[in-house]
């Protein structure tokens, strides 16, 4: 994969904590504080400015092509994405990847300390041996210097080798969760989630979950509108919670899964109207009990938790992109009153609508 060393621009992600507690950071309030610090520091600014958010992608021996490509693609240079990406290796030069591909990287391990966030893509046979000592030490040093570390799929093994996941929740591809737990018993491995955000260290499940992780980071940095725009560009789901279950082979009727997905899509287009468990189950043509049970399996949320988060997400985008009042937005998203919107906004995001708007409104980013 020639040209891997080219600079790119892209996005970060962050899923909100809240009712299911699958994301253990403090929520959007911390993202707001961090974002303001970045604004004051002068590098959460348009691409034309001199200081962009810095993203490193560490390519290890046996790296999986899709895992490497995800952060490079999500954070690729665009006028609306204030990021710069460097693809690096243990040393500059050729890195033998997995699946018959190799990578020519221009940067070595110094790129990890240069970066604001460094991604560790998955690689083949992660349970056999740890990455080379200099790689592990460079990851530790970068983290100590303030770089966030995000592992995609089996990249969690390299992150665990640093000791930075000890005592923390983490995930990896479902095929390797038991091996990760056995190799690193100090890590609290969760095999049932798409990704875990522990603040300065993040992990995701299989490759597609890396997209969810990136969109999560972008949502925390630039807001819902920017994240949704990136999702549309990638033809990806704009929001899958970190608590949503990984796909593990099992006997689940596929038509029923498609029917539930259609119901979720239907609900997203009528958030201003009443949506109860019975209404959703009726649309899916199943009993309320079956709908509720399967919905939790599919998304990690109860139906009404999911509806509430969808409404809050819609409110976030309206706060970012419009001048409508909090009362008007509350009516638009089906929460009735401004007081009700403020209550649920704080419960889920740890901040107020006004504070969120002040931080993420478009003119704050431009």
TrEMBL record:
It comes from the Bacteria. InterPro entries: Class_I_gatase-like (IPR029062), DJ-1/PfpI (IPR002818), Homeodomain-like_sf (IPR009057), HTH_AraC (IPR018060), HTH_AraC-typ_CS (IPR018062), INH-QAR (IPR052158). Residues 261-359 form the HTH araC/xylS-type domain. Keywords: DNA-binding, Transcription, Transcription regulation. The keyword Transmembrane helix does not apply. This is AraC family transcriptional regulator.
